[in-house]
Amino acid sequence: xxxxxxxxxxxxxxxxxAFEKLPDVLAGHSYSVTYxxxxxxxxxxxxxxxxxxxxxxxxxxxxxxxxxxAEQQGTPLRMPKTHPFNPLALLRLxxxxxxLGVDGGTPNRFVCESLLRHVWQSGLDAADPDRLAQLAEHLxxxxxxxxxxxxxxxxxxxxxxDCGVFGVPTLTVDDKLFWGLDALPMLxxxxxxxxxxxxxxxxxxxxxxxxxxxx
Length: 215
Hints:
By secondary structure, this protein is an alpha+beta fold.
């Protein structure tokens, strides 16, 4: 049985679409999934990058593309009232509502589904305090959003960075990272034991020389 880790931030529409599509992609395989919320802004800061919604032109394109992708995928999607927004309250709630376990536990699929659909199916302000209170009442968090919960989100984000994660969603299995909604077919191919993954091609990508870099 393969174990998959799904790193995501609720701020990402691609993470939402990948989350909804994942069961179909994994159908027929024996697997387990751990869902790990991370702060996308923390990944961007570490790598010195801007998010797609922070770049003029790319922002509008991203929204058009994800709305088209949602229609093609058959997944309900309504853009939140404002985007980007501060996702910290939602990410912390994910850990507060996680089933208790070793080191506090990680959120299950129900919790993650509730958070992502809160953002991407309502068309409302994802960070509205009244809506957040209603969501918390629905999820019945196992512990308050205290310093330990905040620390778990920080650790999850740092763990992702240490694993080489640079964007969301990223799915890891064995020693391989699969980034983005469009990587789901590649993940499926790997789980199907496609011979390409046993060829030198995967490792060869790490050895391509840099011809010129911008300073």
